[in-house]
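Re-run requested by the PI after the first attempt was lost when the workstation crashed. Everything re-entered from the original request form. Ligand of interest: S-adenosylmethionine.
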Amino acid sequence: MNFFSVLIDCILSFGRISFLALIGAFDTAASFVDDTGLLGSRRKTATISEWIRRLMKRRPDVVRRMTPPRKLIYVGRGDFLAVGEEFAGYLVGLCNLRPEESVLDVGCGVGRIAIPLTQYLAGEGSYDGFDIVGPGIEWCRQRITTKYPRFIFKLLDVTNTLYNPAGRVDPLEVRFPYEDETFDLVFVVSVFTHMLPQGVEHYLSEIFRVLKSEGRCLMTAFLIDDVAEQHLAEGVSPLYPRFNCGLYRVISKDSQEITVFHEQANLLRLIEAGGLRLARNIDYGSWCGRRNYLSYQDVVVAEKR
Ligand SMILES: C[S@@+](CC[C@H](N)C(=O)[O-])C[C@H]1O[C@@H](n2cnc3c(N)ncnc32)[C@H](O)[C@@H]1O
């Protein structure tokens, strides 16, 4: 039985959402919180994430009620709430998110990062998120917006061979449904790992448009640089981008968006060309086998100049 027949079996057996959950487990999304405290001892930012975690530790009932059932979680394995808290921690620690600011969550999934932000944003603070998978958005509207009306979720029918193959809008033609210069901070977590460079380039231009001047953007990706290349050659990573398509690599030729690895130099070029500039050095992830890392995926923080 080869890889593709396993995938097809999965689709037939479990239905689309369960299939997405399976793929998510395989992917990034795999980003995890290091409960050993390894992160905390190495990086200042992780201390802040620890702080958020402590804040959330008791996980009040209101948080538990917003947590989707397992069958709806298609955004990756690991502790759903803990991963959300980890990234909320990065928004605060790496991007200086303040409670009264406005944020946009591009590819918000089932509210993994929105949930901890309900406990952080306050006053004028607001959250908008959009995604291309209907059941996730429906869950967020029912469980989050009803309790936190400043948390708004939108569904866009954008094509993605993994998440929304029947979508009617090409990613290159999407206009984010927000006015120019609306947000202080835009984040795109584990989404560019499912988009090809041209789509990423277009999304970066939309991010630039909706960001306020000096707004910040946190994005995650699998970046191929010399170090990643070397680790991959040594075979220490369970992820193996077999097909080299020039500016990006994939694990599946037929369904490229299952997992996309971007050439670091090209992603940095797209960020610059889109009018953003790096706000800090890249925080590399552990996905390719690095021993010094912040998270699972590589984390890039940029700002609108
Ligand atoms: C691994 S999940 C991550 C979800 C969320 N960011 C999180 O961290 O929980 C990837 C998400 O990207 C969304 N996605 C894929 N292509 C997209 C696109 N072109 N525009 C917006 N969302 C997209 C998927 O529907 C899915 O929810």
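Saved to the shared folder this time. The domain at 3-304 is CATH 3.40.50.150 (Rossmann fold).
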